[in-house]
């Protein structure tokens, strides 16, 4: 039996839609500092955002190119110049997920994901 060995949730979406969803959530998180979303999306976003911040801490040309490929240039610049220097002495754990009450319409577990100060 063929098994799916990739890490992460697929959200019942094709790969391009899933990548676009995570890209938009990551952009919103870096712009606003915290966002409200479903708990499952927040857990998936945590992996992506923390990987980007860790990459931005080592401000090399290769890391800049990777960030500007995945994020808009203005957002990548903000991550490199404002967000990453805040965490230079921190070895991971740049985000926090706070659980909220379920959404009224469909009962989905909601959460706030925010950048730790």
Structure characterization notes:
The protein has a single domain (15-115), classed as Alpha-Beta Complex (50s Ribosomal Protein L17, Chain: A), CATH 3.90.1030. With 117 residues, the chain is of the alpha+beta class. Helix 2 (39-57) packs across helix 4. The chain has four helices and three strands; from the N terminus they run H-E-H-H-H-E-E. The chain is globular, with a radius of gyration of 15 Å. Strands 1-3-2 form a three-stranded antiparallel beta sheet. The protein has helices spanning 15-32, 39-57, 61-70, 73-86; strands at 34-38, 95-99, 110-115.
Short description:
Helix content is 52%, strand content 14%. It is built from four helices and three strands; from the N terminus they run αβαααββ.
Average pLDDT: 95
Q: What fraction of residues sit in β-strands?
A: 5-15%
How do the strands line up in the largest sheet?
1-3-2
Instruction: List the uncertain runs.
Output: none
- Give the helix tally: 4
User: What would CATH call the class?
Assistant: Alpha Beta
End-to-end Cα distance: 46 Å
Count of strand segments:
3
User: Mind telling me the CATH superfamily name?
Assistant: Ribosomal protein L17
Structural class: alpha+beta
Helix-strand pattern: HEHHHEE
Largest sheet: 3 strands, antiparallel
CATH topology: 50s Ribosomal Protein L17, Chain: A
Shape: globular
- Radius of gyration, in Å, reads 15 Å
The total tally of domains equals 1
In helices, the fraction of residues equals 40-55%
Gross CATH architecture: Alpha-Beta Complex
């Amino acid at each position: 039996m063929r098994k799916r060995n990739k890490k992460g949730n697929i959200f019942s979406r094709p790969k391009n839609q899933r990548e676009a969803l995570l890209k938009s959530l990551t952009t919103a998180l870096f712009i606003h500092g915290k966002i409200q979303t479903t708990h499952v999306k927040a857990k998936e976003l945590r992996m992506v955002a923390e990987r980007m911040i860790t990459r931005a801490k080592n401000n090399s040309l290769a890391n800049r190119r990777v960030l500007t490929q995945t994020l808009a240039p203005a957002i990548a610049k903000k991550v490199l110049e404002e967000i990453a220097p805040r965490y230079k002495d921190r070895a991971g754990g740049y985000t926090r997920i706070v659980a909220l009450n379920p959404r009224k319409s469909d009962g989905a577990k909601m959460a706030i994901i925010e950048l730790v100060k």
